[in-house]
Write a structure and sequence with these properties.
mainly alpha
Length: about 90
């Protein structure tokens, strides 16, 4: 009997507390949820942009390395020509 009375009292308190919540709080919660969703979309968009930039940096690094190697090879050819040339 005591147990069922305690459960009934708990149920009544829960219903009473639910009735005390206002629609303003629900609206604020939905606004916050929308803001979180918007921020999540922005974060995923920024991650995609960051991945694209990282790929561009890697491509330009590879191009820079290739240009450096070609310049070193050209300098070596010029040095070989200068060494073989005698006045």
């Amino acid at each position: 009997m005591k147990r069922s009375a305690a459960l009934f009292t708990g149920l009544i308190l829960s219903v009473t507390l639910m009735g005390c919540s206002s629609s303003e709080e629900v609206d604020q919660l939905s606004q916050l949820t929308n803001k979180v969703d918007m921020l999540s979309d922005q974060v995923s968009s920024l991650q995609g942009q960051q991945d694209q930039l990282a790929g561009a940096v890697n491509d330009s690094r590879a191009a820079s390395d290739a240009a450096y190697q070609e310049a070193m090879r050209a300098n070596q050819r010029i040095d070989n020509i200068a060494d073989s040339y005698q006045k």
